[in-house]
Structures are given as C-alpha cells and as structure tokens.
Amino acid sequence: MRQLASYVFATSNEDMTKLLSSGFPAQKTARPPIGPLPTPATPFLSQGPVTGSLNASTPPINGAYIYNWRVALASAPTVYVKQVQTTAASNTFNGLTPGQIYNVQLNAVGTAGTTDWSGPGELMIT
To answer: In the chain, where are the structural domains located?
Structure first.
C-alpha cells in the first residue's frame, strides 16, 4: 500500500486534482509538533526465558524514537550493570546473577529531547 501511495504521489506531480482523483486523501502539509514527551511509566518486570534474565516493558510513548534502559543492583542503585538503547518499549536483559534483586529504569528520546528517568521496577532474578 505504501508503494502504491508513493507512486500516486510521484505521478501526481503535486497536482491536488490528480492526487484526489486517485482516491487517496490529501495529507496535511504541516503537522503540529508533539512537544516534550511524558516520563515513561515504571517498567513491568518478569522473569526472562532463561536463568539470569529478565523481561522489562512499559507502555510505548507516542513520539519516542529511542528508549534508554539501565539496570542496577538494588543494593547499589547508582551503579549500572547494564545500559542499552532500544527502539521498542520492551527489552530482555541477560547475564544477570540469580538470587540478586535488580532495579530497571528507562527514559525516552523524541525530537524535543529526553524525558526524565522512570521510577525503578524491581525484581529478584531466579
């Protein structure tokens, strides 16, 4: 469908009459900016698929391009043992020590900048 829409746009040569006769609606030329993004919700954590892993997820934020994740031991919450970037509002962390409690936080990045860090989700790894 996107290929067809691209073809119609290219062959209409920016002639609105031709474009509208194709059956495709005209797209607004100026979209309002999204603006600053809200802080992500505290991530939901669950045991991962293998020992020493955990799954983390949060509802996606409209306008977020990147999510920055950080993982720390609950006993040392400012020392991050893992830091990753994803384009999804979920991630699986591997290589964690079973029996330890971990905190996971994230922030989101959009065109207006980076959000504050979320509250920490906490989980004991098995």
So the answer is: 1-31, 44-124
Are 47 and 100 within 8 A, CB to CB? no
CA distance 124 to 97: 9
Query: Whole-angstrom Cα distance, residue 104 to residue 74?
Result: 9
1-48: pLDDT as tens digits: 678 777 777 777 777 777 777 776 766 666 677 889 999 999 999 999
Task: Indicate the pTM of the whole model.
Answer: 0.74
Query: pLDDT tens for residues 78-111?
Result: 999 999 999 999 999 999 999 999 999 999 999 9
Spatial neighbors of 3 by CB under 8 A, at least 6 apart, are none
CATH number, span 44-124: 2.60.40.10
